[in-house]
Each structure stands twice: as C-alpha cells, then as structure tokens.
C-alpha cells in the first residue's frame, strides 16, 4: 500500500497538503486567452494543477453524435465540427503549458483516445487523467500504463468490477484515484462520500474526490473524510456558453473552496492523541486531580 505519489512538483497523499486540481476542461471554448485567464484564476486561488481535455474528434466522437446539429457562438455546426473547433493544436498547448508553468502550476489533460496520449506525451506532461467515461477503454488504459507517468483515475459512472479491471491494467504504482459520481449537477444524495474509504481499502492507493456539485460543502466534507485531492471544474462565468460552465466554480467560489480545503486539511491531524501546547494553560488552571 502506498500513501503518496509524486505528480510533477507535488507530493500527493497522507501528510501532504490536499492536492487541488482546477479542471479547465473545455471551458476555454477554444480560446487561448480564456485558457490563460483561467490559469490565472487557478494560480491566485492556490491550486496546484490545471487540467484540460484532449481528443482526436474523428476517433473519440460517437458515431451517432457526429452529425447532430449544435448551436454555437460560431453558428450552427455538426457536433463533430464543434469538437474540432474547441480543440487546441500543439502550438497552442505548448503556449498554455508554458504559461501554467510560469504561474507555478502543473498541467495535464484527460486524453480520450490513444493518439491524444501520444500528443500529450510529445508535450511531456507530468501526468495523465482518465475521465470517468474512459474507465472501460482498455486500449487507452494500456497506452497510459506504457507511458510510466502518474495516472489519475476518476471512477464515476462505473461499477466496482469495471474499476477493478482498470486498476489491473494501470497498476497501482503512481496511481491516484478520484471518487466521483458523474451527475451534473451532483445532488447530495448521490455523492456517496464513504466510497473514499472503500477505494482506499480496496486498492491501497491515495484517493481524492472529483466533484460536480453546485456548492462547496461536499468537496470540503470529502477532505474531512480523507480525500487527499480535490478536482473541480472552473470557469470565468457560469453563464458562459458551453456544456460545463453551469457546473463549474467561478473565481470567488474557487478561492473560498481552496481556503476551506486548506483549513479542513490541516484540522484533520494525524489521529494520534496528545496534549497540545495550547491546552497547557487551561490544564494548569482547570484540572484539579492529576493522573
């Protein structure tokens, strides 16, 4: 059993500050300047990493969705055309990656197909993220295992047997699991935070939480219950056009969340009973009978 792993410049696990990931995803809407502004938001809030999504649309777009019309800020287009419209190319990713690094943040992405893994490897990302939708994509998982990079595995929309198989392929060395429920937005009755401990006991790896709830309470509670990492979608404005903005945190919300995570993470302690320095004066004043 491993209590921690190294992701980029950060140690993630028991005894380390909670690892907070700002999920930019596609909330940049295909605009490098919006991506940079979201990186700024993440840096100011105090997160350690930002995450994007990388697809090869011709491969990763389901056949039945390709020709579905979609209204976009750029006019009506097919879903496949939209997917191409919001993808960054290598030069754009190199630019935003360098910008993230300049702000003290690690960056990586969720690859949705094997060529996207190769694309990200060419950019030498520090880790890879498996989206919940990709838990059963064994070809993708095998390619990720071959990179030797740390892998962050979300577990939403998956059975325990499907997660078992994913872990069998990925291995547990360098694995960070994220408990998740892929309901957008997430209602409290589907959060099932006790799964954090279940995953820890079953797989013996560090476990965090990926949240899609509208508020902050469930993410903070996840830390109190042992999550060593928290991932949340972030946006400049929840009213922006796009599928994930409404379930994302705006800048003030992210700052509040990170503040509360840091307080609760420190308050968890180590579970060893001791008399703390702050108790000595009340002890001397109030205890009448000694041991």
Automatic annotation (TrEMBL):
Organism placement in taxonomy: Bacteria, Bacillati, Actinomycetota, Actinomycetes, Micrococcales
Domain of life: Bacteria
UniProt cross-references to InterPro entries, sorted A to Z: Aldolase_TIM (IPR013785), PseI-like (IPR051690), PseI/NeuA/B-like_N (IPR013132)
Pfam families hit by this protein: NeuB (PF03102)
Name this protein carries in UniProt: N-acetylneuraminate synthase family protein
Domain PseI/NeuA/B-like as annotated: residue spans: 38-273
């Amino acid at each position: 059993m491993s209590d921690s792993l190294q992701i980029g410049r950060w140690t993630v696990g028991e005894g380390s500050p909670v690892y907070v990931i700002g999920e930019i995803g596609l909330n940049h809407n295909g605009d490098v300047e919006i991506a940079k502004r979201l990186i700024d938001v993440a840096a100011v809030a105090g997160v350690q990493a930002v995450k994007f999504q990388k697809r090869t649309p011709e491969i990763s777009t389901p056949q039945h969705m390709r020709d579905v019309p979609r209204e976009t800020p750029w006019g009506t287009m097919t879903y496949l055309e939209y997917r191409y419209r919001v993808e960054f190319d290598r030069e754009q990713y190199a630019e935003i990656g360098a910008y993230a690094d300049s702000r003290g943040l690690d960056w990586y992405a969720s690859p949705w197909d094997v060529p996207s893994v190769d694309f990200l490897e060419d950019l030498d990302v520090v880790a890879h993220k498996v989206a919940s939708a990709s838990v059963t994509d064994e070809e993708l998982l095998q390619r990720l295992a071959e990179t030797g990079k740390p892998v962050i595995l979300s577990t939403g929309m998956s059975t325990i047997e499907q997660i078992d198989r994913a872990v069998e392929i990925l291995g547990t060395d360098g694995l960070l699991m994220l408990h998740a429920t892929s309901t957008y937005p997430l209602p409290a009755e589907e959060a099932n935070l006790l799964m954090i401990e279940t995953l820890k006991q079953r797989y013996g790896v560090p476990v965090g939480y990926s949240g899609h709830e509208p508020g902050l309470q469930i993410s903070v509670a996840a830390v109190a219950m042992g999550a060593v990492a928290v991932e949340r979608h972030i946006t400049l404005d929840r009213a922006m056009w796009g599928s994930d903005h409404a379930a994302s945190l705006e800048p003030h919300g992210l700052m509040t969340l990170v503040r509360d995570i840091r307080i609760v993470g420190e308050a968890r302690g180590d579970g060893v009973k001791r008399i703390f320095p702050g108790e000595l004066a009340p002890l001397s004043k109030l205890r009448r009978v000694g041991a």
